[in-house]
Each structure stands twice: as structure tokens, then as C-alpha cells.
UniProtKB/TrEMBL annotation:
Membrane-topology annotation of the record: Single-pass membrane protein
Alphabetized UniProt keyword annotations: Membrane, Transmembrane, Transmembrane helix
InterPro entries cross-referenced by the UniProt entry: Band-7_stomatin-like, Band_7, Band_7/SPFH_dom_sf, Stomatin_HflK_fam
Family: Belongs to the band 7/mec-2 family.
CDD domains, sorted: SPFH_eoslipins_u1
The protein's name in its UniProt record: SPFH domain, Band 7 family protein
Source organism: Fodinibius roseus
Amino acid sequence: MENGDEFINSLTWIITIAVLAAILLPQMFKILREYERAVIFRLGKYKGTKGPGLIFLIPFIDKIERVDLRVLTINVDKQEVITKDNVTVNVDAITFFRVIDAEDAVIQVEQYIHATSMLAQTTLRSIVGQVELDELLAEREKVNRNIQEIIDRQTDPWGIKVVSVEVRDVVLPENMKRAMARQAETERERRAKVINAEGEFQAAERLVEAATMMKEAPMALQLRFLQTMTDISEENATFAFIPLPMEMLEVFKNMSGVQLPPGVGGNEDDSGEES
């Protein structure tokens, strides 16, 4: 009988110790991952920041707040904003930030993720309202940098570093899209006309240079004449081409007394008078 009572007493103590261990051990020891830090409060007062790895706590006296040090992402909801040139657009963005000081992130601000999200929304509206539509579309990197600098400056006392801010999408009204399409079409037509005019101008310059060269070297005109004959003979034409020597024009010149262009059938100093 006594052995039975001793066994029951031993079993009771074992169960009691096991229950206490199951309650106290999770309160005494915490394991933090490499990217986590624990902000410890002892009786409500800040005690220190520990981690990663195994940390020891006083049960029911120490309380901890886990802080993730990885880069976090906030999706800034779409905002309807009026730009500097009075165009209504819908914009949204993504904010990348990380905690660099776990103590400030817990003590200085309540719910630092939510606070950073709200700050990003207001800053996005403020910056987009200060730029024109063309600048918002063409200089997206500059707008992103301005938003990132403002948010980072205001979150610095919270122990938060804003890595980058990216304006993801800019939605324009349909009438503005049509106006921009007409503007782009008109701009392309203007460029096409300018390019065509430049081509005509360059071609005219080359023709003037060619005429000057042929005037200085009359044989160049004869070579050009032969080249034209070659080009025509290679085509499938339905007409006959009979080449005549340029010297035959001398006979008609002497008979009629007509002044021919310089370099054609005679010398440049030929006066064209009848003999």
C-alpha cells in the first residue's frame, strides 16, 4: 500500500514539473532567425535588443517585440491626382524599405509598416501634383528619386531606410490619350517633311557639285552619256536607242551658228560665230 502511495506521489510531482516546464520554458527561451531582432521590455521598460539565435528571458517579466530586418514591400494604392498642368491621372507605386534600428521602429512609432504606407501615399500625391504630365511620363526616374528622398528623410527618426520607390502605372483619361496620339502623329508628319526637305536640299547640292565638275572636265559628260546608254540597254524596253557621237553636233553648230552649252560638242571659249 505504501509503495502505491509513493508511486502516486512521484507521478504527481513528475506531472507538475512537466506542466511547469511546458509553461516556463517557452517563456524563458526564444529562438530568433538571422533576419530577426527582439526588442526586450522588462516590466514595461526598454531593456535591450537581442538576436539572432537563442536568447534568455525572465518568465512573465520580460516581453519582446520581434522586428523583421528584411526588405519589405508596400503597395501604394492607386491615387487620383491632378498634375501641375491640371491633368487628372491615376497613379500607384511600390515602396521598398527595411528596418535598420529595431529599437526606434518599435518605440518611436506605432505600427511602422502602416505608418510608412500612409506616408508613401501622401508623398506620392504631393510630388505628382508638383510636376507636369510630360515630366511625369518622360522623367519617371526623377520623380521616383524625389519621392524616395522625402519618405526616407521623414522615416529616418523611426529607424527605417527607404530603399527605393517606383511609380508603377500612370492611367490617363481617354480624351487625353486621344490628344496625345494626335500630337504624336502630327510630330511624326513634321519630322517626315523635314527629312524630305533635307533630302531634296542635299540632292540639289550634289547636282550643283556634279554640274561644276562636268563644266571643269567636259569628258565627264561623255562618260555620263555612255553610262546612261549602258543603263538603258540593260532594261527590257520596247524602243530602240541609237547612240550618236557627240562630235556630230559640231557639224550642226557650224551650219546653224547655234551656241551650244559649254562642254557639249566644243570648247568653252568657242564664240559660236559663223566662219
